[in-house]
Each structure stands twice: as C-alpha cells, then as structure tokens.
Amino acid sequence: MKDKRKLLWYVGVPVALVAIAGIGFWARPVSYFNEATYLRECLSGAESRTVQVDGHRVHYVAEGPADGQVVVLVHGLGGSAEEWHNLAPYLVKAGFRVDLPDLIGFGRSERPADFSYAVHDEAEVVVGFLDALSLKQVDLGGSSMGGWIAQLVAARHPERVRRLMLFDAAGIYEAPAWDTRLFTPATPGELDQLDALLMPHPPRVPEFVARDILRYSKERAWIVQRAVATMLTGQDATDSLLPGLKMPVLIVWGAEDHITPLSQGEKMHRLIPQSQLEVIPGCGHVAQMQCSSKIGPKVVEFVKQ
Q1: Is residue 123 within 8 Å of residue 262, measured between CB atoms?
Q2: Could you give the residue range(s) of every CATH 3.40.50.1820 domain in the chain?
Q3: 238 has pLDDT over 70
C-alpha cells in the first residue's frame, strides 16, 4: 500500500502540474508566450531594467557589451522592446550596445492615465530615457510609430542622434487608406484583417490564442486609441522637418507594407537628401521582425560607417 501511494505521488503530481499548466496556457496563452520570450531574453544575456523618466517607470531591455557604441531602437504602436528580438542580435554580434525601451503605456513600462500618448510626448520620453542613462549621443532607430518618434527626436535634438534609422516609419502627413480602428480589434475577423495589413501571408491564429489576444487588446485599447487620435490630427507630421535633418539616415521599407505604404518611404527619401532607401521584397509593415536576415546586415553596415 505504501509503495502504491508513492507511485501515485510520483506519477500523479507531475500529471496534475502538466494539466494545470495546460489549462493555464489554454486560458491565457499570451501571458505564456510573453514569459517564454522574457526567459529566452534572459538566457541570451539580455538584461531587463527600469529607469525613471519624468516620474514614470520606463522598462527597457539592454543587450551587448557595456562599452559598445549605443544603438537605441523604439518600437511601434502597440508593440514593445521584444519587437526587435530578431534584429538586435545582428548589432550585438557586431559589438554594439543595444537599448530597447518600452514606451510609456506599452510593454512592461508604466501606463499612467494622465499621459497624452501623443508622439511628441513619447519623443520627450525617449530623450528623458537617454538622459536617465547618461547617453549624450546614440544611433537611433524606430519602426512605425517608433520611427515617427525617432524623427521628432532627431529634428528637435540633433546633437543626440549620430545616425538615424527608420523602419516602415509613420510621420508623413497622409490619411490612412484603411480603418484605424483595426489597431484595437474586437473580433476574430478584425484581428485577421489587422494581421493581413501587418504582414504578407499571415499565419493562422488558433481560436483560443485569438481570444486571448482580443482580451489583451481590449485591456489596452484606451492607450492605442488615445495615441491614434493625436496622430490623425496631423499636428506632429514630419514633412517639414525631414529636409532639415543633417545626420546620415537609413530608411528600410517592406515592399508589401499596407499600413505605411512604400510611397511614404520614397517621399521620406526625397525629403532627406543624404538618406539611403532599402526596399525589402516580400516583407510587410513589420519587416524588422519577419525579414531580419535581410535587414540585419544592412543595418550593421550603416551604423559601422
């Protein structure tokens, strides 16, 4: 009888734990995916840190040698530092220090109710982030809304930016040709539409994962909606600022971007005489995530110049 009890203990407990984990994963897969990503970051040597910027807690991921030339990369709307998970290793391998902040309201940073979430205020958060880390000058990059923010930082604080990188960046004054409400999808169908805008041939999302993504989206919809509302006013459009940029600029664009079409990247290229435009075939709005093998070497070559 005693041996049977031991057997039940040794077999039953692991089975129960697996069952509990399985139920948890089914109920909250987004949380499990996030934690798995954070664990991979830790195992790869990346460090999770926080700093105070204007009284708000800002989280960031730091990778690479402490004495390397610093590259700061800013994520897009609804994103986080993990948006650069595939691209950052190319810079780290080349000897650069890479700092990846979560903008206020996103990722693991604070989500204050009294913040505007306008791109000009997020740009000042990035400047405050540089101040908090005592970074006088960096190579700065951003994707989508993060690219818009990076443009404002470079235009208003040019002494802080050695080189500028724009990945499928927003900022040009042009009304979207698609429904911006899709940034906060409320149904599986809307989620599918958003995925189709973000990338060519998006993978199928299992129903239980889609359900949790929608729950996650609903919780943070007020932040995204507040940010989009300020963008649509055009008050922070960068058309008039871009010709004044003096630092070298790399513009990287997915050829199949449906959110910020290639025509916007081409316009940025025309407005910035010293810029270089790299168009990535077969890639969409999140090219730095899906096409990092094509983009990584180009980015490293640019910041090494």
Answers
A1: no
A2: 47-304
A3: yes
